[in-house]
Amino acid sequence: MKISESVVGRHDGQTIVAHTIENAAGMQVTSLNYGCTITRIVVPDKRGNLENVVLGFDTVEEYQANSAYFGSVIGRHAGRIAGGCFELDGITYELAKNNNGNHLHGGLKGFDQKVWDVEVVQEKDSVSLCYRYESKEGEEGYPGNVRVSVTYTVTNANEILLSYEGISDARTVLNMTNHTYFNLSGDLKRTALDHTLKIKSDHFLELNDSLIPTGELIHVDHTVFDFRDGRKIQEGVVSEHPQNVLVGNGYDHPFMLRSNQSEPITLYDEESGRLLVVETNEPAVVLYTGTQLGNDYDIRGRKSEKYLGLCLETQGVPDAIHHSHFPSTVIEKDQVYCSETKWSFKIK
């Protein structure tokens, strides 16, 4: 296992560093301490060609100028919170409203725009990047001082383990995820429309016109939301299902995951032979197919466009604070929040 480090910029007077980890198989993962942002994941295709399989930029300035959350950690709370406020213990907390009067992905300056402390931990068959940040009480409107950590561990088995921890000195909400956009074609040769996705999920969450869960769980039977046996992303794009049309012809929906299932999520690109297996201890995954990606900027020489990549955001349910029947994203004072996800890259 090899690791290299370089200074790539500054933000709010703090130094931004990039670390690149390379394993024995040639897999490379590059990450910034700015937003714990994963900028590159290079893995082989079925012919042995090593290519990048995520969307990202080459400069810090591009990340600062664009708000698509490419590869970044999202927090304090992933997804939308209706009305940009919530009540906890009889107190109403007003959050930053950065999405049509609602709160999205932690607010105006969420975890994705923070410079984190970073420590490198090397083992025989793995290297970990351990990021730490303290979110002060009142940041973006949230209660409690919260100490959070994010650890990315790259192994010789072409795995990336994502571990999130947090602890607060007051009752609050916490729901973190990673917003990496995957495109397994390699170096953005094609869009993700022909990718085949499997999700072991019987229900997805209905969204309202603001793309916030209504509280209704809809069974996937006889819909293009049934990914249990695999389905190409293209099918949701051409679908006339009102929920597909609502989000811009595609998907931006939470799916409830079955518990204790092996390989609950897989993404496959037949032409390259690349297979991504996603496992998690979270109750849900938000499938976002890049329906809001504009074409007004370039991504490493390729014009950005809808469906250029897709996100598999393992997390608690967005807006859970307003729906008592959803798994809670509230954490108690001094309770340790723990979330784990593993990405395994394989050839099929």
From TrEMBL:
Pathway: Carbohydrate metabolism; hexose metabolism. The keyword Amino-acid biosynthesis does not apply. It is an enzyme of class 5 (isomerase). GO terms for molecular function: isomerase activity. Transmembrane segments: none annotated. The keyword Plastid does not apply. It catalyses: alpha-D-glucose = beta-D-glucose. Belongs to the aldose epimerase family. This is Aldose 1-epimerase.
